[in-house]
Amino acid sequence: MKPEVIVIGAGFAGSVIAERFAHVAGKRVLVLEKRAHVGGNMYDYIDENGVRRHEYGPHIFHTNSREVVDYLSQFTDWYPYQHRVLGHINGVVAPIPFNLTTIERSFPKEKAERLKALLINEYGMEKKVPILQLRANANPEINELAEYIYEHVFKYYTMKQWGQTPEEIDPAVTGRVPVHISYDDRYFQDTYQMMPAHGFTEIFENMLKNEKIEVRLKTDAKSCLKVDLENKQILFEGEVFQGPVIFTGAIDDLLDYPLGELPYRSLEFDIQSHPHTYQEAATVNYPTPAQQNAFTRITEYKLLMQAEQQPEATTIAVEYPLTYHHDGETGNIPYYPIAKEECRRQYQAYCELIRGIDNLHLLGRLAEYQYYNMDAIVAKALQMFNKLNETSHS
């Protein structure tokens, strides 16, 4: 098949746009995927315990976008799932994000009631307040609470996750897990919260099940595609390719690191089997100093499954953050872009190198060096397809 569109990467970004080009625009699409499977970091499968294991860490679908739900529902059925997270906080196990229930479990009753009243009076019920904003409050009791939360919930978890202190991190990152002035102990409050009935991998298989789509697994794009920076063109199998090329991987890797390696945080997982249920919630955080627990959280995968499908045995993943190195024995998968100005400048310098190659389009967390939840990248891929499709017809 001679492709009209080339997509590099078979995660959500690549699979959605490949499906749209094939199904809506009727284009012949070639998908190049370095791994041996589709689905990117969403890849999951049933393991030896009968548990649906998420190979690259836990993924929970949640969104406020009806458009995204309607689109993905073409490729999967769902079951309802409300994600709840517990944390080991100064000797007690309590809900995360830190909320009014967490206050009740963390302090004597009289103090807890006073702190709850202060927070509700200051911010109102059902409000989410970033920890850095809470620490700036002038009320001494609120400030004391903020320091407690900072020390026992945010500080060490953030240091382990990012290798930096919270003050060094972009507020948009720390703001993702705020203090929640509520008794709602769900980790997310989105309108739509569910899990795919037969796993995430099936979504990708169904998306790419189109006679106009060819998927080449275990294929590094650089083995057949070259970005010619000097002549501002793309060569595919030695010939100039003028159709759209949607790239969803790491731009520094595609260009062979001429400006150095973009920094990311990576993860390693200690996968363990146990005969019975291991913990109280699907995810339990350990916001403790690294000397006490080097890992950040433990996920018990069967607790993400439908209750009637949970087996007796269980599989857990103990999660260790570390610095990314593209050729390292460990930490060689880029998970999280570093939200620092010097990193964005380095990324923008890479974008300058490809400026003028008008048929090369960057899409996704790695290609755009930007954090996306899965619903956001589905929406972004749909938006990019609509724009490219309109342009081709104008």
From TrEMBL:
One of its GO terms (cellular component) is cytosol. Keywords: FAD, Flavoprotein, Isomerase. The gene is glf. Its EC number is 5.4.99.9. GO terms for molecular function: flavin adenine dinucleotide binding; UDP-galactopyranose mutase activity. It is an enzyme of class 5 (isomerase). Residues 153-371 form the UDP-galactopyranose mutase C-terminal domain. Belongs to the UDP-galactopyranose/dTDP-fucopyranose mutase family. Its cofactor is FAD. This is UDP-galactopyranose mutase. NCBIfam families: UDP-GALP_mutase. The keyword Cytoplasm does not apply.
